[in-house]
């Protein structure tokens, strides 16, 4: 709505440029994705043909399963795919039971070993308390002017009281199955499963859980930790509804939302769980990335000074990250300004509501882009710290973190830096990638577009508003009371494309950076080993020459 008004007012200075650039970037990303898929399929087919040809020449139909050569690589966590983390020492690979648990690992500070289980249990308690507490109240005030048999008729009360468990139950009863599944699984069951798994993985030693399995678990839970933000974002859409004011010819309606403690408890628990997942992943990387048996020059190579060539110099795919990161940043910035969805407040036909054109229309629409939706969070409650925290969390996870992530990855890929600076930026990149939650918001909007009308209709006719809606239907000959729904706009396509790109591109670029940094360390280690051997040969005492007696 804001973008449309700017276009009507003639402000074409910068808005069309961002929109066109965003759509162009998304189109290029889609084209590149199609090309990559085609190349991958062609190569797989070619490799399969070559393998069949080789087996035919050797007279072997297929390799028995028992003769498959096992992979000796040990996949680490999403952080541990950084330099030197893809391979442990042979002793650790063949004897994983010698790896201590993270609770006893010397790579983990003593204070972290002590407080990590405490904070994990605290998260579990916060989730239980948040599930049982009220998260928000949607209040409605209805005013009917000139009602039959009444001068003015007024009703005020609660349209919906939101708690996680009750909202999931009501969504299921209203026919909003997807919303019920998201609330019940991603926000009800998943947080408890995540905290239990994190606590278990923290205490299991290597003889119970191998380093590769531990890294896989931590990588999965670090990537999915942001799913707990879907419930706060759903409440935020309710908050967008409550910013609407319905002013009809006869009927007026004012909405307001009061955020309760349960929402902020849930938000704090979701943030803390994401931090704990990333922390466990980080310390798993520290405990596996630097074997004690590594040669001295290998460890020294990680801390050497001076500026190295950029990481792209150590990779054969040097141009892809250089192109992909700016495209993702431009697409994300463009999607933030374009109208993505609308919240619509609707009523039904009434003889007294027919306008001059003869069309019965009683609705109010407010459109949002990603940026305008985030900036209007304070209208819910400008003075409460909790609503500010909700706004800041949304803007960081949906807009700031994606843009900063693209900039960090692009800089570490093309700029010459010290190795320790490159490694630090890679760690920052992994941390930012764990906090990018634009995909969560896109999924919430898509589900709200399908189910929001069912939920509001159910709340209006099954809750405390039943009396008011029954009176209006009886006295005003209305077929329905008040309703609301979410409508997707054309900018939602760009927003969804940006979210998809942010799911794939940063992980591809981070993997390329990790391989390049590993190659950098190997070359540096070889150079230092050669220098050490050359220096040793020069300083060695020469053998005495024997002359004639």
Automatic annotation (TrEMBL):
Cross-referenced Pfam families: PqiA (PF04403)
Membrane-spanning parts: 20-42, 188-208, 220-241, 261-280, 322-343, 392-416, 428-450
The UniProt record lists the keyword Metal-binding: no
Key words of the record: Membrane, Transmembrane, Transmembrane helix
Protein's UniProt keywords contain Acyltransferase: no
InterPro entries: PqiA-like
Tree of life domain: Eukaryota
Name of this chain's protein: Rfc1 protein
Species whose genome carries this gene: Symbiodinium pilosum
Lineage of origin: Eukaryota, Sar, Alveolata, Dinophyceae, Suessiales
Gene: rfc1
